[in-house]
Amino acid sequence: MSISISEFISSHPSLSLLETRCSSMHHLRQLHSHLIRTGLARDLIATSRLLSFTATSPSGDLSYALRLLSHYPRPNTFMYNTIIRALSRSSKPDLALQLFVEMLYRDTSRPDRLSFPSVFSSYSLLGWVDGGRELHGMVLKLGLADDGYIHNAVLAMYATCGCVDEAALLFDECGDFDVVSYNSMIMGLARKGHVVEARALFDEMPERSVATWSSMISGYVRNGCDKEALVLFALMQGTGMQPNDNILTSLLGACANSSALDQGIWIHSYLENNDIELNPLMATAIINMYCKCGELDKALEVFDKIPDKALSTWNSMILGLASHGRYYEATDLFSMLQESGLKPDNVTFVGILMSCGHSGMVDEAKYYFSLMSQHYGFEPEIQHYGCMVDTLGRAGLLVEAEDLISKMPMEPDVAIWGALLSACRVHGNRELGDHAAKKVMELEARDIGKHAASSNILADCISSRLKIRKNGGRKERGGSMIEVNGVVHEFLAHGDFPMSHS
């Protein structure tokens, strides 16, 4: 006599409890112990329910789920899919790939249409496009390439990994409108710097999701098109659609880069008025916005209100104080960071060394420079050497700065030689200045060659099969922006009149 799953669950009180009352790992462990005592721990349905809770519930425990899977003698496809999907959304997507390989070698499980999207997502997060290509080949051999769910996962993998040409080929195969495919393509193009093409796709979409607006706005900000990002957000507001965390964080970056203080204040107020909890990225973005707009006291006010500060939040505040020459406040904050239990990283030391340089604190800069390796155990990177050269140069210690450059474990870049050149001009050292200038010209000539080659590669990467309108993209002219009374005024090169944006 056959029995349905619901009947089986209702006939076992422990499983019914798991369905209705289990709200924590403590409860689940109690139920698991009960299943072991009653002999149900080897039951397929019972174990599947345990796995589902531990792997997918916010109160679950992925490590516990993996142990459950390893102890079950004959795990099936559902069990593997459940944990692979959870791992693909975690900080350990490489474990999802390992589990998928293990699944292939089991005689009790075979990957199905629900297995592959999570594996492609793992390759996307890791940036392992070669592995993604091999998996794509497997999908083609199994005849699953036409499955819409899998097709979008493959396209997203190529787009996320920067392979816009391969993504475009898949995009062209999409028959009916698919917002997921469009979003992946827009994101991929924007990440490669092709914002004109991304906007063309955006404009031709008959309907857009929040993810669509997020991809386009963040793409603009990532490529320095801050004005366009703010204008696009104004259009989004007209649709009545509510922005998500990613959009608001990107917009705060745009406000910071374009000194749009009033718009940044509006976004901050929006977050407060809607009781949106600040995650570390948002908190850092707000502080960075206020710092770049010159509102250091407001940034400190926000910083002080954050209960559990992430290291990125500390770094943003230290960098903000450093860039405005507030040395003592920056060093006080550095001491507080040390006392908080968090460990300073490379970015932290860039901020504190920058603060020393702007304030002429040479001995203090030397102390912090040595503190990196002697106390925290990591070697200075090129940015830290750049800060030290700048500090020594500002103080007129040109020979010492040149000696430090000669002892660097890596090749000095244009910024380092440029800092020395600037110091030589200020302090009148013609001979050393000529040497620094020669190095700057050599490195700039090399960079121009690399840039030309890179531009050719990117041009070839645009597929002729992209379904976009040609809208005559042109190189942006140089200019600057300033906000006055809530209006951002843009001043373009070659004497054009300023353009204003509300």
From TrEMBL:
* Keywords, ordered alphabetically: Repeat, Transit peptide
Superkingdom per UniProt: Eukaryota
Any one Gene Ontology BP term = RNA modification
PPR repeat ranges are 76-110, 178-212, 279-309, 310-344
Give a single Pfam family match.
PPR
Question: InterPro entries, per this entry?
Answer: PPR_At4g14850-like_plant (IPR046960), PPR_rpt (IPR002885), TPR-like_helical_dom_sf (IPR011990)
Mind listing the GO molecular function terms for this protein? RNA binding
Entry's family note = Belongs to the PPR family. PCMP-H subfamily.
This chain belongs to the protein called Pentatricopeptide repeat-containing protein
